Amino acid sequence: MTEPVSENIAEVCSARVIHHDIVAWVAAAMPEDRDLEELAGFFKIFGDKTRIRILRALSAEEMCVCDLSCLLGMKQSAVSQQLRILKQSRLVRYRRDGKVIYYSLDDAHIRRVLELGMEHVMETRSSG
Prior knowledge:
Elements: H1 20-29, H2 33-45, H3 49-60, E1 63-64, H4 65-72, H5 76-88, E2 92-97, E3 100-105, H6 108-127
Antiparallel strand pairs: 1-3, 2-3
Helix pairs in contact: 4-5
């Protein structure tokens, strides 16, 4: 049976033992550095509150820049700039309907990342 971990314990090994079998197994399962860099870049996009707000809105419904500007209380140019970043990162896509361009999430994975992140935030808040 393991002892509960105290939050005050320093994050170092006091036993100084390397578990070679675990290290080897995890090393074999680790993605390539290039893939990890792409993943870090993906999550970096989520590090901006405005982009999160746009993604959250688009997870509910496709919207045009005017709609997003109204919803978020922002200038259209500021929303457009964030949408450009989200498009380049392949998190949102767009479709043209006459003179109006509608934006939506690129796929269900983006919606799921947002949902999982919010679940984590809510669980952390309720347990703290």
